[in-house]
Design goal:
The protein is α/β, with parallel strands linked by helices and about 250 residues long. It contains 10 helices and 10 strands. Helix content is about 35%, strand content about 25%. Bound molecules: adenosine-5'-diphosphate and magnesium ion (MG). Keywords: Amino-acid transport, ATP-binding, Nucleotide-binding, Transport.
Length: about 250
């Protein structure tokens, strides 16, 4: 089914919105009817246990081929995203920083960044990137895949900013990193928030995500079971225990 053909309602007023989005990997029904909104400049934490469908939801938003969105609508600034391919969504300003970072082998840090910039709708200049990511400036001539995990994460985020960003999707930016490095990446991400970049962050480290986020949703078996303020969730121990095991 082509999701574009089932759009009958007008675009929502919100900056970014999902309306009843369903997505499958082949026969596997994973994203089971998600509706949410993100205001301009807001950071939304998308939380939930392992396997809840967080990555799949981000991939559906970024319009990757898998999972296939079979029903529902995705809107960014009044523009229908659901009929788009991933390259079109990226051109429209939706930038996904994937869990596995996808640094391109055989290329330096700077070449990875320049490659991102050559696509239409360029974002930050190298100078601005290096201002925000001094470690990348130091390592600009080093091959990207030889960076430490934390530096690769910085490069993955920087590469997203090298494109025009209207909605930044961060999939577990703190995963697998030492606490001191997590703090460094957190600092960078908080700086990005201060610039007013609308963001959805997925994190197992829910407390760190909630420190950053304005609002939060919890996903469980592909459905939203909580929508509220980050503060509300930080204060609701039973909810956190039930769905996040923290
Ligand atoms: N490529 C895939 N093919 C089939 N099933 C998948 C694929 N990727 C993820 N899944 C399944 O979809 C469900 C949600 O996965 P995922 O979105 O990665 O969860 P989370 O990011 O919340 O840990 C899991 O049951 C997972 O096994
Ligand atoms: Mg995931």
């Amino acid at each position: 089914m082509n999701a574009a053909q089932i759009t009958t309602r007008p675009a929502p007023d919100s900056f970014f919105a999902l309306r009843d989005v369903h997505a499958y990997y082949g026969e596997s029904y994973i994203v089971q009817g998600i509706t949410l909104e993100v205001k301009k400049g807001e950071v939304l934490a998308l939380l939930g246990r392992n396997g809840a469908g967080k990555t799949s939801t981000l991939r559906a938003i970024a319009r990757t081929d898998d999972p296939a969105v079979t029903h529902g609508e995705i809107w960014l600034e009044g523009q229908a995203v659901h009929p788009m391919k991933s390259w079109q969504a990226s051109q429209a300003g939706i930038q996904l920083v994937p869990e596995d970072r996808r640094i391109i082998a055989g290329m330096t840090v700077e070449e990875n960044l320049i490659l991102a910039q050559v696509a239409p709708n360029k974002g930050w200049e190298l100078e601005q990137i290096y201002d925000h990511f001094p470690r990348l400036a130091e390592r600009r001539q080093q091959e990207g895949v030889t960076l430490s995990g934390g530096e690769q994460q910085m490069l993955a985020v920087a590469r997203a900013l090298a494109r025009e960003v209207k909605l930044l999707l961060l999939d577990e930016p703190y995963e697998g990193l030492a606490p001191v490095i997590v703090r460094e990446i957190e600092h960078i991400v908080h700086g990005i928030k201060e610039l007013g970049i609308t963001t959805i962050i997925v994190e197992q480290n829910a407390v760190a995500a909630l420190r950053l986020a304005d609002r939060a949703v919890i996903l469980d078996s592909g459905e939203l079971v909580f929508t509220g303020s980050a503060q509300e969730l930080l204060e609701d121990e039973s909810l956190r225990y039930r769905y996040l095991a923290i």
